[in-house]
Design a protein that fits this description.
Elements lengths: L1 H18 L8 H11 L4 E3 L2 E6 L2 E8 L4 E10 L5 H13 L5 E5 L2 E9 L5 H16 L17 H17 L2
Antiparallel strand pairs: 1-2, 2-3, 3-4, 4-6, 5-6
């Protein structure tokens, strides 16, 4: 059996390698090229890009030495966040925020997307920025990155409760 698997891998691996088109490694410059397509008015500010997506300010910071990047959207001051707010954000981080996350830093609540820089692919960057904007927009409501929901968490039930509540009200009509 092992020989058969090894022989198949020997045959299949070169074929798969030919079919898979790889992207170049992400650099600060390439990051900027992609960001400029998303917002032609984006600007460089030191190790960061400032852009706007549908009236939402986004900051994308790259640390080339650490090989990391972070997209961030400010949501509100962290002061005054209730235990219910914090619990709901942690639930969303588990299942509905997807690749974006709620985070608290420097006295602010943020929507963030954090990823190693060099292996980051164009589609991952674009999706991560979009999810970050959606997480900021849906704070206080659905708390979602917008693409789908990872099962096993609490968000689906909480979101389903609203649908059920409205359907129940609609039964009276």
């Amino acid at each position: 059996m092992f020989r058969l698997v090894a022989a198949l891998m020997f045959i299949v691996t070169p074929v798969l390698a030919q079919e898979v088109e790889t992207e170049p490694l992400m650099t600060f410059e390439r990051l900027g090229e992609i960001i400029k397509v998303l917002d032609p008015e984006a600007r460089v500010a030191g190790p960061a890009y400032e852009l706007t997506i549908q009236d939402i300010p986004v900051l994308v910071i790259a640390d080339v030495e650490a090989d990391r990047m972070r997209a961030m959207v400010p949501i509100r001051a962290a002061e005054g966040l209730s235990n219910e707010d914090l619990l709901r954000m942690m639930q969303a981080n588990f299942d509905s925020a997807l690749d974006a996350r709620y985070a608290v830093a420097n006295g602010r609540l943020w929507a963030t997307f954090i990823h190693p820089l060099s292996p980051l692919q164009k589609g991952q960057l674009i999706s991560g920025i979009a999810q970050t904007v959606n997480v900021a927009r849906t704070y206080g409501g659905l708390y979602t990155g917008g693409a789908m929901q990872f099962g096993g968490g609490d968000s689906n039930g909480l979101q389903r409760a609203l649908i059920d509540e409205l359907l129940k009200k609609g039964e009276e009509i």
